[in-house]
Amino acid sequence: MKRELGRGIGLAVSGAAIAVAGLVGCSGDQSADETMSSASETVESGASSATSVITSATDAAKGNPPPGSATVTIDGQEQNIEGQSVCTNLGGNIQIAIGNATQGIGAQVTEADPPVVKQVGLGNVNGVAIGYTEGLPGGEATAEKDGNTYKITGSATGVDMANPMQPMTKNFEIAVTCP
């Protein structure tokens, strides 16, 4: 994998160097300094684009969703997420809103390494609002951070009002890449 990444960066820089040579050779009325400045900007832009493509490819290979996106699985069933995901740093915690507000899916984790899960809301599952809150009995959650991607796993609880004496527990997995 590292060899492929190195080759990709090498190809991008080589391509940029060829572009520089072409710009220098075809500069026409421009001074050498102007041509080199323009060529240098082209190389920087090409290298930045190559790095961005490689980072996106690496994240995808790791199974990370694209920036601003998330995957949510509850009891082995992937949920349909409508809309973007947004992450906000507030008071030492990362607030993560997933999809549109009506879905009610979100999480709060600390900035620590590894992050500590403070709470998770999974919205309405079969008529039951389920979630996890640190310190309350019945659920558990852990988080990992890889760059801008958070992977949160655990179990969440809820109460079915049709049978309030029998709490419900659902396993969940969230993967979200903050924009």
UniProtKB/TrEMBL annotation:
Biased composition, class Polar residues, residue ranges: 30-43
Single GO cellular component term: membrane
PROSITE patterns hit by this protein: PROKAR_LIPOPROTEIN
Transmembrane segments annotated in the record for this chain: none
Entries under InterPro entries matching the protein: LpqH
Pfam family name, one: Myco_19_kDa
Chain positions covered by the region annotation Disordered: 30-52
Keywords of the record: Cell membrane, Lipoprotein, Membrane, Palmitate, Signal
Entry protein name: Lipoprotein LpqH
Organism: Mycolicibacterium murale
Gene: lpqH
